[in-house]
Design brief:
alpha/beta; 2-enoyl-CoA Hydratase, Chain A, domain 1; Rossmann fold; N-(1-d-carboxylethyl)-l-norvaline Dehydrogenase, domain 2; 3 domains; 8-stranded mixed sheet; 7-stranded mixed sheet; 31 helices; globular
Length: about 725
Amino acid sequence: MIYQGNAVSVQLLDDGIAELKFDLQGESVNKFNQETVEDLGKAVEAVKTNSDIKGLIVTSGKGVFIVGADITEFTDMFKLPEDEIASWCLKSNEVFNALEDLDIPKVAAVNGIALGGGLELCLAADFRVLSEKAQVGLPEVKLGLYPGFGGTVRLPRVIGVDNAVEWIAAGGQHKADKALSVGVADAVVAHDELQNAAIDLVKQCLAGKIDFRAKRAEKLEPLKLPPMENMMAFQTCTAMVMGQAGKNYPAPVAAVNAMQKHAGMNRKEAQEVEAKGFAKVAKSPQATCMVGLFLADQQVKKVNGKTAKASKEINQAAVLGAGIMGGGIAFQSASKGTPIIMKDIADKALDLGMSEASKLLTKRVDRKKMKPAKMAQVLSSIRPTLNYGDFANVNVVVEAVVENQKVKQSVLAEVEDKVTEGTVLASNTSTISITKLAEALKRPQDFAGMHFFNPVHMMPLVEVIRGEKTSDETVGTLVAYAQKMGKTPIVVNDCPGFLVNRVLFPYFGGFGMLMRDGADFQAVDKVMQKFGWPMGPAYLMDVVGIDTGVHAAEVMAEGYPERMQYDFKDASTVMFENDRYGQKNGVGFYKYELDKKGKTKKVVDESTYELIKPHVADSKEFDAEEIIARMMIPMCTETVRCLEDNIVGSAAEADMAMIYGIGFPPFRGGPLRYIDSVGVKEFVALCDKYAHLGGIYEAPQMLKDMASKGESFFA
């Protein structure tokens, strides 16, 4: 052994070729934490001073190559001044440069995932051979950052400006064949031939068949483009990236600007530009929120992993109710490998459910994301039925019938008698108490809520709702089932609205008050979209369904009368009373028509203003700051109350539920991280400013206590 560290080792193979292997001890994956970077530096120095080494392959001792930087170190790192963050980048680059500068042929043998710093390390090698199973990419923009270990410098010099911009600004993860087609990979081989192929490439270099020094030299010099072509290429790319990213996500544009700025520089100068720009985006509020979001997502996965350990075996599922929701659940379960029985009381409903599943599968086939044979396999694993004949073998049953307590209790009691003892039952309800539904059951410990969001195939969140008598095993089983379906489950305790709807309806309440006071719903929609929401509140109500919203608002008012019982007629109630339910029947706050491509588009409907006129004040213009405050305070304070009431287990889980469930702007990190960004003390002051409007604007005691102690949700 030439060198042995905790993360990197070097040993001499045959014919003067050495293997530098990443194998971070105590971790399931390789990642670039500070220890690994230091270890790599020592390993490279050992190679440099060993005259027996004529060539080098870089490998991994794990199932992945290197997943990237250790994100957990970013939180403290990014609190440093910009110049210190830039110095950290340059120090890491010195190690990568030392590897690149070794005057021997170097081949990275990529066996699995190589992302971020993992791919940047591969770019420092002279060549890259990928296993057919490998996937590579530079996803830093998804954290509000851009590559800081030489990625913006080396990648355009290896694959050209256009391809480099696409890879860095989009932050995608690419399969081996894609990497080969653009030049990131020099070869793709069968997985079990990877090491031999890498060694063979080193031997070809040593035999003089391939000029490895010329390959290295390209990365040390300015981009080989005439100045005018260089300018034109970057101008085109910048405009495209700016249009796609939008101003709420500055990192992609910052990456392109850095590449343009250092295009005419050598490696040393270019990396200094990269490091300076990286430090700037690292200090942005977007990076703070998006790094925090990544860490919150990891925390949720960890919590779910522990919860799912209590799961029963899940080999066969069933769904009761074959409407749009039931069909969506059946599709999701079957497409992810769990066969499912879909039961209803009418053939027509079963046809609708199968049609829904077939439609979703056909779209995947049309988009080349699924082969017809796979579609047939998935469809065959959905069994429509009018009876309970095969329910004795079912492990999990999801009830998805109409949102009516008596109907749901009747259906659940009926199916409980048809399944074996220990089968887990779940209700896909958005408003009805799980504890109340359980009153109709003999085995309430085997029952919980499993709230899917519509459309099921697109929305990543599933709320798993624990009733008063729900067992840990039942919760664990539903968490495991949601994970098998490719969803992110968040476990919450039973209360009116559970978590997501309980938090969403104060937001709608704030909207109703704004309209009552004379705000234009279109103006509010525009401000909130600019704030970062995928759609404004009026449009969102139309999409959800105003009839659904009015029903849920009644549940909220009954559950939280001190906050959510209003003394005025809400505009959404006016829409409901005039049979304007939103997209589902073509008219709500907006009208819905088909465009030339047959897609639904919203158009302004002046009659909306006439309908609400008797119930609102004279038209008044509100500035954006007040609209944002009056919309966001109710949502954020109710999220705090859910944490305070132990409805949700942690701030991370609460924020992720809002991101995944209702499209809270990711670059703002979630309601609780948004409070942190404003400042807890400052947010309490904002609550006090608007407290006269009603209970939904009052600061919860938990928030007041945190403000007095100088605490935050995410230290």
